[in-house]
Amino acid sequence: MPALPLLPTRAELRALLTLAVPVVTVQVGMMLMGVVDTLMVGHVSPAALAAVALGNLYFFAVAIFGMGVLMGLDPIIAQAVGAQDAPSISRGVQRGMLLAALLSLPAMLLLWPALHVFRWLEQPAEVVPLAASYARLVIPGVLPFLAYAVLRQTLQAMGKMRAIVITIVAANLINILLNWVLIFGHLGAPALGVDGSALATTISRWVMALLLLGLSWSALRPYLLPIHPDALRLAPLGRMLRLGAPIGAQFELEYGAFGLTGVLMGRLGTNQMAGHQVALNLASLTYMVPLGISAAVAVLVGQAVGRGDAVGVRRSARTALVVGSTVMVVTATLFLTIPRSLAGLYTNSDAVLVMAAALLPLAGIFQVFDGIQVVSSGVLRGLGDTRSPMIINIIGFWLVGIPTSLFLAFQAGLGARGLWWGLVFGLAAVAVILLGRVRHRLRARMGRVIIDDHGHQT
After folding, report:
1. Which residue range is the domain that position 289 belongs to?
2. Distances from the Cα of 106 to the Cαs of 62, 139, 153, in angstroms?
3. Which of 28, 144, 290, 298 could form a disulfide with 378 if both were Cys (CB 3.0 to 4.6 A apart)?
């Protein structure tokens, strides 16, 4: 296998950025909804800020598995698009919508006992009832959240991004307005605080799903209607679930590591948890850029596999890794040099500001590793390799990161900073091992993912 040049060509950059820029725009737009919630409720009180943080943490802890499962659509639909296989696209989309409906049920059930879960986790007494109320009020938003994921993954794989970008811009504007009205009690509405933030989030998620469906109806209608008989068959649906489940488990493992860190922060105190939330929110916002690049490279790699273009797979992978790493070096520099200024955007509390400013430089350190690992996962997802990233996440986060966090925070006495140093070591391990896996897979034989058992590939 001849070696590729280290730096991508202009044509390769253009191919990646043509898809990645709108995908990144959407990822940042998704994240901005949470940032706006945090910014606005943070001016109510530190307890309100911590409650929204904890409520969101719990929502994603139960919903992120379903979102990951649905990302199994990436190789299925992208490879079908590359092969110009319209029936496989149709079956993939319809099975995705069915899985979204099925996966929403356990997620909604798990959100209901939030009060008991938070008490069991020994979270601050003043935060628990507020956070539990938030978790229950976002239950109606689970179904549109997962349905939106199906529509978005499908349109991304088809290279149709305009409707997604319009939808996320509109959803952000609606979310800002609803937060302003419902949190603070404007336009005659009662001032609901944390509950107002939850209601704004739920309404915005319904708007996102319905608006995206409406704007993209002409493109999606041939694949959504009529219902394909094979789309309801259990065997292919089970194969699709087995393909996506490792992605869901990977997301759950990674999110669980950060979530456990948040829970442990809660045990250290309200100010520590609020400062952690501010720092994590900023780190998550910049993470949306390589996450968008990861989604784009999964599509480009999948389409190249569908075309039988092994060189195109390697070129797309190399370009995405270079671009993703470069972006994260830039954002890491900001976190290392102006942490207090960035944290000051979120809170007026001196205690929360000091904590957030102490954690942001550590976020700057793990930024680069985080970018490498998420882009590498996107490459492997486009190839249909979904189990390896799950196993690597177990090793990096749960065998390296979490034990290190616990030792440094509670045995070595480093407290909040110790918890975050564990995240640095865990992400570094995941990034290094995933890069090795990508290198191995790019040297191996590539083929389409097989879902249907009657001669069709999808």
Report:
1. 10-443
2. 8, 11, 22
3. 298
